[in-house]
Amino acid sequence: MIPARYEASRFPGKLMQDLCGKPVIVRTYDAAVGTGLFDAVYVVTDSEIIEETIKEHGGKAIRSQKEHECGSDRIAEAVAPMDIDIVVNVQGDEPFTNGEDMVRVLQVFKEADSHKIDLASIMTPMLSLKEINNPNNVKVIVNEHDFALYFSRAAIPFPRELNAGVTYYKHKGIYAFRKQAIIDFAKLPMRPLEASEKIECIRYLEYGRIIKMVRSDSPALGIDTEADLNEARKVFKAGEAAI
After folding, report:
1. pLDDT tens-digit readout, 132-144
2. Which residue of 21, 89, 142, 171 has the fewest C-beta atoms within 10 A of its own C-beta?
3. Which domain holds residue 210?
């Protein structure tokens, strides 16, 4: 499931911006389908133009019937009548989604302690202070078993001791849920921490749910700004040139 809201607050209309010949949302849809891992892939949107664009490119789209606070709420509405077990949420601005990351996050639900886990997601190391200090990059800190402790747009942990050996992780916009977990999520009112940070995973933590983070070394390049879009175009063109 790919939630797609047209009026993004930081970069309105970004999902319909051109990314080397196709809109960003179509590139993300194609990437998800291209993994070959899913029985079906849908874009779930509040936008007529996004719905029509996906269908024009041969894809599947569902128009959400309600206003929603976040993408997971939108997906919960869409999957409620479906007979499915695992739901994967790929953010619409993640056109470089890859199968390797998807396999890792789905593997969580095959492990011995999977019954304890409500949600699995992906984190990747950040290597520069510019990345770490960018509020568009959501940071995550985890315990020794890679269960999430907190997510923030701030640099967490604060680097008071520069030689502490801390690795900073960026949260990638891919989540896997059991269907019932996302249905339950949508029934929970947003609390102050999520409202402040505008990070939907915080809602799970505020209500005592467990999030398993999976490490990935593949770069996390989501599109939040025009600068991100320009960088994505460079990466895409470089990939085409290498084929």
Report:
1. 999 999 999 999 9
2. 21
3. 2-218
